[in-house]
Write a structure and sequence with these properties.
two-stranded antiparallel ribbon, 2 domains, single chain, mainly alpha
């Protein structure tokens, strides 16, 4: 897919000017594991055509089932949340999506915007995935669910999720829009706090006692 050429909101699959772009978008969404319902919605392709593309591009049937519909708290940071790695991944995608949306000069196809943001997010986190093989990244369908909760265009005013900047470290993180801000904690600060706790515990550890335990274990 060509991320530098947006598909405008008014574009239709039937328009010869945009047909190839929609087909390209559908292919990319398939390769990212997008649900057929999602691909049909934003490309205009019939379900049968999407199923054929799945078989051709991946060698398997399209994955059935509903689109994810998580609660806002699944992505947002609670005050005592320990799943900070996941919160950071969700915030990273949300930040990329909002930046690209803000850069658009006109309303664009949400499927194109979602896929373009996801491509950027995937490239950004690839080196991290190499270093941390079990890193939980946001899946493509969950990325759409996250966009649903963030809101799109005018719908953002009443959206249940919002992206905030930490006043301490500057990192962006997701919060539940209507919840008091004191109920949230920046995941970066949370990780740093936990690291400080571990260092503090290590400093108070009885080193001679540890050596004695090692001798007894031999």
């Amino acid at each position: 897919m060509e991320p530098v050429k947006p598909i405008p909101l008014h574009a239709k699959l039937e328009d010869p000017v945009w047909t190839s772009r929609f087909l390209d978008l559908a292919n990319t969404m398939v390769l990212f594991g997008g649900k057929p319902k999602l691909i049909c919605r934003f490309t205009g392709l019939p379900a049968k055509a999407v199923a054929e593309r799945y078989k051709l591009l991946t060698g398997r049937q399209a994955e059935a089932g509903r689109l994810p519909q998580a609660q806002p708290g699944y992505y947002a940071c609670g005050h005592d949340n320990r799943n900070w790695d996941w919160n950071l991944q969700a915030a990273a995608f949300a930040s990329i999506f909002l930046r690209i949306e803000t850069a658009m000069d006109e309303p664009v196809n949400l499927g194109w915007l979602l896929t373009t943001a996801y491509q950027a997010y995937y490239r950004l986190t690839d080196p991290l995935r190499v270093a941390i093989p079990d890193l939980q990244r946001v899946g493509f369908n969950s990325a759409y669910d996250l966009v649903r909760l963030l809101g799109f265009g005018e719908g953002r005013k009443s959206a249940p999720l919002a992206l905030k900047d930490c006043k301490t470290c500057g990192a962006s993180f997701l919060v539940i829009a209507k919840a008091p801000f004191r109920n949230h904690m920046c995941p970066m600060c949370g990780i740093q706090r936990r690291l400080d706790e571990i260092i503090g515990e290590a400093k108070t550890f009885n080193v001679p006692a540890l050596h004695h335990v090692h001798k007894l274990a031999r």
